[in-house]
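Example 9 (inverse folding). The structure is encoded as follows.
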C-alpha cells in the first residue's frame, strides 16, 4: 500500500486512525466533507461530498487502499441516509473500481444486525437485522461490497464497528466497545492481509461481555489487546435504573427503541 485514503477523516474515528497510521503507509490521503486539519509530512488533504461522483473520482485517484468511514454515522431522515450512505457508498466503490483500487475497509456497524436480542450470540454469517434506516444503509454497504468483490475483485473487509472510544460509556457498550488500538489493528488486517476477498468481522475489543462470536476476525489474525471489563464496575454503577425495555432487549439498544411501534419484542 503506497497511498491509503481515509474518508470521514475529520470524524472521531478518522482523526484517531490518522494519528495511529501516520508513517505506516507512505502517503495518507485524508478526505471529509468538512476540511480536515492541515497536511503534515506524508499526508494529503481533500474535501469531498460523497454524493458528488466527479469529486469522488478525484478523491480516490491513485489510491491503493481505502478506509471508508465517511457518510452519516447515526440515524437520520431518509433523504440524508440516501445521499450519504447509499449514493455515497456506491460512488466510492464505483470510483474505486474505475481507479483500480485493490482494497477497501468498509466501516459498517453493529446496527446492521441490531435487532438480534442480546441473549443471542451472533457471528458474521447471520442475516442482517437492521435496527434503523442507518442500519439498513450499512447492510446495503455490505451487500454492495460483496458485489464489487465477486464481480470486480476488490478485496473487502467489512468491519461492523461496535462503539469506538477510549473507554466504554454504558452497559450496552461494555459488549460492543472497541479501543483505538484494536480498531487500528483490524483496519491494518483489512489493508494488508495477503489473501482477502470479502469478509465481515465485528469491530469490537476482546470484551468478556460481548454478544458476538468474532471467530472470523481471529481467523484473519486479529488479536485484540483490550477488554471492557476493566471499566465494568464504574460503568454499571453509573447506569440509570429505568432502562427502556425495548432498548434493553435488543443489541442495537436505543436505535431499536426509536420509532418502535410493534407490540412486543420479537425473538
Ligand atoms: C454506530 O454505528 C454509530 O456510528 C456510533 O455513533 C454509535 O452510535 C455506535 O454505533 C453505537 O452503537 O454505540
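The amino acid assigned to each position is listed next.
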Amino acid at each position: 500500500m503506497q497511498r491509503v485514503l481515509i474518508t470521514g477523516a475529520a470524524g472521531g474515528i478518522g482523526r484517531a486512525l490518522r494519528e495511529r497510521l501516520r508513517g505506516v503507509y507512505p502517503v495518507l490521503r485524508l478526505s471529509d466533507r468538512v476540511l480536515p486539519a492541515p497536511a503534515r509530512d506524508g499526508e494529503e488533504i481533500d474535501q469531498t461530498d460523497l454524493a458528488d461522483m466527479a469529486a469522488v473520482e478525484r478523491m480516490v485517484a491513485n489510491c491503493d487502499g481505502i478506509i471508508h468511514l465517511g457518510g452519516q454515522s447515526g440515524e437520520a431522515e431518509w433523504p440524508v441516509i440516501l445521499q450519504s450512505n447509499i449514493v455515497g457508498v456506491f460512488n466510492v466503490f464505483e470510483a474505486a473500481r474505475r481507479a483500480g483500487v485493490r482494497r477497501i475497509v468498509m466501516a459498517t456497524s453493529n446496527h446492521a444486525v441490531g435487532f438480534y436480542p442480546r441473549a443471542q450470540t451472533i457471528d458474521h454469517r447471520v442475516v442482517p437485522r437492521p435496527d434503523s434506516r442507518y442500519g439498513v444503509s450499512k447492510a446495503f454497504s455490505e451487500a454492495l461490497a460483496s458485489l464489487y468483490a465477486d464481480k470486480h475483485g476488490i478485496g473487502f473487509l467489512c468491519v461492523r464497528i461496535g462503539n469506538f472510544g477510549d473507554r466504554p460509556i454504558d452497559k450496552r457498550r461494555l459488549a460492543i466497545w472497541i479501543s483505538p488500538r484494536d480498531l487500528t489493528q483490524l483496519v491494518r488486517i483489512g489493508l494488508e492481509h495477503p489473501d482477502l476477498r470479502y469478509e465481515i468481522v465485528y469491530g469490537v475489543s476482546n470484551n468478556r461481555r460481548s454478544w458476538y462470536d468474532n471467530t472470523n476476525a481471529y481467523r484473519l489474525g486479529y488479536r485484540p489487546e483490550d477488554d471492557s471489563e476493566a471499566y465494568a464496575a464504574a460503568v454499571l454503577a453509573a447506569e440509570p435504573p429505568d432502562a427502556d425495555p425495548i432498548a434493553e432487549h435488543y443489541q442495537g439498544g436505543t436505535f431499536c427503541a426509536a420509532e418502535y411501534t410493534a407490540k412486543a419484542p420479537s425473538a
